[in-house]
Structure formats: structure tokens, C-alpha cells
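Private note to self, pasted from the team thread so I don't lose it. C-alpha cells:
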């Protein structure tokens, strides 16, 4: 693998500020209604942990893992579920929590899938909206931070499974 370095992009303080704001918006919009929070593995785990502990309504948490048939860093839009939900969705208010939305193809596919499960409502929350390469117009209800481009790691996001544990967000810069 090529050498690379990590360039600081979003600090822990900025992350905490945005997570607070998102939790306030979600609390305001949902009143006291119970919420089923669906985290998309693996990337969303750290954000989901921070967000859900700030939510005021009764919360249940479940996870899905999606595999995309994309080549390299490109997403093809052909997705399959490698770990499915364990809790029922029918009649529930659902909040889908995603780490980062790039082309939007993965989330678009999953939303189509969720439609068949008859939730009472479905809202989308992404910590990072990486908007420049968007191909599918996914309706993001809650967004932490908007960035145009760049491959980001930390705060749950990996590069070849590394750096997920970093508390801040960095951009991968290749050397040479
Ligand atoms: P999309 O289908 O929106 O193109 O891709 C979404 C998925 O691609 C994200 O859930 C994430 O797993 C991965 N991804 C997109 N951009 C980045 C990035 O900058 N860093 C990392 N680590 N993963 C990314």
C-alpha cells in the first residue's frame, strides 16, 4: 500500500458540537415518541453511540451491515445485506444512522428495501454529507457536517480497517 499521512479535518470539539445539535433537532422533531435507531455497520458505530446517549425519547437500537459490489472506492449501487435487523420495523418510527454519504447509492438502495418493512416513518441522519459525487438524491433529514470531497477516516470511518478508533476526523493524503 502507498504511504500516506492523516491530515486533521474535524476536531473532537467540533464533532461534539454537531452531535449535540443533531440530538436537539431529533428530540424536538420526535417529541416523546419511541424511536428505533438503525445503525449501518461498521462506520456508524461511534456516531450512533454518541448520538443515542443524547436522545430523550425511549430508544431501541439495531444494526444492519451492507456490502456494496463496487470496485475499489467506487460504489456500484448493487448492495446486499450481510447482517440484517433483528428487531421488527412495522409500525415503528425509524431513524437510519449512517456515517458518511458519498454517491448516495448505498443509502438509496437500503431505503428502497426499508419501504417494504412498513415503518410508521423513516428519517435519515448522516454525520458527514460528502456531496460532490452524489448520484442518488437521498433525502437526508439530519446532517452533521458537509464536506465536498476527500477520503476521511476516524470517528468510526476506516481505511483498510484502520483508524476507526480515532476520536477526530482526518483526511487520507497519499505521499509520492
Ligand atoms: P455511497 O454509496 O454513498 O457512495 O457510499 C457510502 C459508503 O461508502 C459509506 O457508508 C462508507 O462506508 C463509504 N465511504 C464513502 N466515503 C468515505 C470516506 O471518505 N471514508 C471512508 N472511510 N468511507 C467512505
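Design output:
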Amino acid at each position: 500500500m502507498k504511504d500516506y499521512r492523516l491530515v486533521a479535518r474535524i476536531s473532537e470539539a467540533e464533532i461534539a458540537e454537531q452531535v449535540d445539535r443533531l440530538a436537539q433537532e431529533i428530540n424536538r422533531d420526535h417529541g416523546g415518541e419511541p424511536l428505533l435507531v438503525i445503525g449501518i455497520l461498521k462506520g456508524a458505530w461511534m456516531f450512533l453511540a454518541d448520538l443515542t446517549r443524547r436522545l430523550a425519547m425511549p430508544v431501541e437500537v439495531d444494526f444492519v451491515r451492507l456490502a456494496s459490489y463496487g470496485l475499489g472506492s467506487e460504489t456500484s449501487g448493487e448492495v446486499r445485506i450481510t447482517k440484517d435487523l433483528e428487531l421488527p420495523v412495522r409500525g415503528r418510527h425509524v431513524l437510519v444512522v449512517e456515517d458518511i454519504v458519498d454517491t448516495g447509492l448505498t443509502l438509496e438502495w437500503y431505503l428502497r428495501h426499508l419501504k417494504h418493512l412498513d415503518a410508521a416513518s423513516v428519517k435519515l441522519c448522516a454525520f458527514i454529507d460528502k456531496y460532490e459525487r452524489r448520484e442518488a438524491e437521498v433525502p437526508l433529514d439530519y446532517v452533521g457536517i458537509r464536506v465536498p470531497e476527500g477520503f476521511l477516516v476516524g470517528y468510526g470511518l476506516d481505511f483498510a480497517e484502520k483508524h476507526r478508533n480515532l476520536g477526530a476526523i482526518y483526511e487520507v493524503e497519499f505521499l509520492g
